[in-house]
Specification:
InterPro entries: cNMP-bd_dom, RelE/ParE_toxin_dom_sf. The chain contains three helices and five strands; from the N terminus they run βααββββα. It has 81 residues and is of the alpha+beta class. The longest helix has 15 residues. The model has no long low-confidence stretch (mean pLDDT 89).
C-alpha cells in the first residue's frame, strides 16, 4: 500500500464538499493506493494523473511510494489552473 498525502488545496476542497462526495473521493484514492483498479488517466502535457469519481475529478501525482492528491473537485473546474 502506498502512503497518501493531501495538498492544502485538496484538503480545503474536500472540506467544502458534501460529506458523501468527499467520502467517495477519499475511498477511491485509498483504493488506488491499495492497488485496486480505478478510472485512471494520464493528463496531457503533465506528469499528473486524474481519477474519475462520478462527476468529480481528483488530480494526483503518483510518486514512488506515495500518492500526492493535488486537487479535487467538479469536472468543469478541476483542470483550470
Amino acid at each position: 500500500m502506498k502512503k497518501i498525502a493531501y495538498s492544502k488545496a485538496a484538503t480545503k476542497a474536500l472540506r467544502k464538499m458534501q460529506p458523501k462526495r468527499a467520502a467517495a473521493i477519499v475511498a477511491r484514492v485509498e483504493a488506488f493506493a491499495n492497488g485496486e483498479s480505478v478510472d485512471l488517466k494520464k493528463l496531457q502535457g503533465s506528469e499528473f494523473f486524474r481519477i474519475r469519481v462520478g462527476q468529480d475529478r481528483v488530480i494526483i501525482d503518483d510518486q514512488t511510494m506515495q500518492v500526492l492528491v493535488i486537487k479535487a473537485g467538479p469536472r468543469g473546474d478541476i483542470y483550470n489552473e
